[in-house]
Design a protein that fits this description.
Helix content: 25-40%
Bound molecules: guanosine-5'-diphosphate, manganese (II) ion
Number of strands: 19
Distance between the termini: 35 Å
Structural class: alpha+beta
Largest sheet: 6 strands, antiparallel
Strand content: 25-35%
Number of helices: 13
Length: about 400
């Protein structure tokens, strides 16, 4: 699950990461009120930031022509006008796709007088299975770009999860960023705080881009998180009700929300062959084999190890509400699950949804004979696949007219 920048900054500041003072607003009236408050408090400049999960807002454009999802303002009246131009409008950035994202909240914050921008991220290093802190002196730009152009500018520090990030490691990273003198200890505190946020919140990613060297109102240099992005591991949400409450359904695909109600793992893709599979690994393999025979999967769908008839029926409705779908491949291995239960679920779902698309079913495992008989005796036009590759070829052929193994 992703959260908004203003929410990420709330979490980070709870763990000692310095962030600019700011408040989230849903109306221009709120925004002007917050602006007055900061200006009276001595702020010289304010920044208004459209809140969408997609990044690249600074360089984005609203569909109404207004330029930039991150704008600097000197007066409260300007803040009002900018908030009015952003709220209720659709922002298109490199990460949103052409359809863009509706902005319904803006963050009004004290602007940072930025002297230098850095990149900081905490994530899981999959090759060592250890947390990894990644920093770069090239901040504010895409890290993928830095990785491609000047990989030597990315510094990596692996963290032993049993002991957490050690102060010496934070000192090493701060030094690598060239943060010295009065900046050194605050930087160490910030780095340790970023790691702690990642760990305590069960995040999959904490990204601060830019982390900035800022001149504050008194002319003093400080380091703080000017932007923040946090993704949380969905499987951990049950133990973080306060983070779960940060979920913004407007940012998610409608079909994925519906799927999560039934505990189905569904991810929409661009192809036209829907798949319904039990187990994530088998679902991946099923997508691969569809592609291998020249088809394009319309989705990833894992109904779980022990799906009920209700879940199977919900799964059918979800894959069928994708207008691109031209055929369905069901691939079930009855390990925990009984094939006859699944077969009954499929037959019921086909009747209920009055399915008129080609449906290929491959069943294997517990009670497979009973399962196959149920499908056969249902009188429904279900095509049976004997093996995975037989089933994949049959559905690709039914949808595209041909099936050809590409590799
Ligand atoms: P993103 O484009 O969605 O990643 O949004 P960011 O918050 O990272 O903003 C984009 C860029 O705008 C940053 O890299 C900064 O250069 C600039 N920016 C963001 N906030 C401020 C601010 O408070 N003051 C100034 N001067 N520039 C800012
Ligand atoms: Mn950014």
């Amino acid at each position: 699950m992703n959260i908004h920048e203003y929410q990420a900054k709330q979490l980070l500041s709870q763990y000692g990461v310095a962030v600019p003072p700011g408040e989230v607003c849903s109306t221009p009236e709120e925004a002007i009120w917050v602006a007055h408050k900061f200006l009276i408090g001595g702020a010289k400049e304010l920044v208004i930031k459209a809140q969408t999960h997609a990044g690249g807002r600074g360089k984005g454009t609203f569909k109404n022509g207004f330029k930039g999802g991150v704008r600097l303002c000197q007066t409260a009246e300007q803040v009002y006008e900018v908030a009015k131009a952003m709220l209720g409008q659709v922002l298109v950035t490199q990460q949103t796709g052409p359809q863009g994202r509706l902005v319904s909240k803006v963050l009004v914050a004290v602007s940072s007088d930025i002297k230098k921008e850095f990149y900081l991220a905490v994530l899981l290093d999959r090759s060592t299975s250890w947390p990894l802190m990644m920093v770069s002196t090239e901040g504010g730009v895409d890290i993928e770009e830095v990785a491609a152009r000047s990989p030597e500018k990315i510094v990596r520090e692996l963290i032993d999860p049993a002991v957490g990030m050690m102060p010496y490691q934070a000192r090493k990273v701060a030094a690598a960023l060239g943060l010295k003198g009065d900046l050194f200890n605050p930087a160490v505190k910030l780095l340790l705080g970023a790691y702690k946020t990642w760990w305590e919140c069960d995040a999959t990613l904490v990204e601060i881009n830019p982390l900035a060297l800022v001149i504050d109102n008194d002319g003093k240099e400080i380091v703080r998180a000017v932007d923040a992005k946090i993704s949380i591991d969905d499987n951990s949400l049950y133990r973080h009700p306060e983070i779960q409450a940060m979920r913004d359904l407007a940012e998610e695909q409608a079909l994925e929300i519906e799927a999560s109600k039934y505990n189905l793992n569904y991810i929409k893709l661009d192809g036209n062959i829907a798949c319904l599979v039990n187990g994530a690994g088998l679902a991946m393999a099923t997508m691969d084999i569809i592609k291998s025979f020249g088809g394009e999967p319309a989705n990833f769908l894992d109904v779980g190890g022990g799906a009920s008839q209700e879940q199977v029926s919900a799964a059918f409705k979800i894959i069928l509400s994708d207008p691109n779908v031209r055929g369905i491949l069901v691939n079930i291995f009855g390990g925990i699950m009984q094939c006859d239960v699944i077969a009954a679920g499929i037959a019921a779902a086909v009747k209920e949804t009055e399915l008129d698309l080609p449906l290929v079913v491959r069943l294997e495992g517990n009670n497979v004979e009973v399962g196959r008989r149920i499908l056969k005796e249902s009188g429904l036009p279900i095509i049976s696949g004997d093996t995975m590759s037989d089933a994949a070829q049959k559905i690709v052929k039914a949808v595209t007219g041909t099936s050809e193994k590409s590799a």
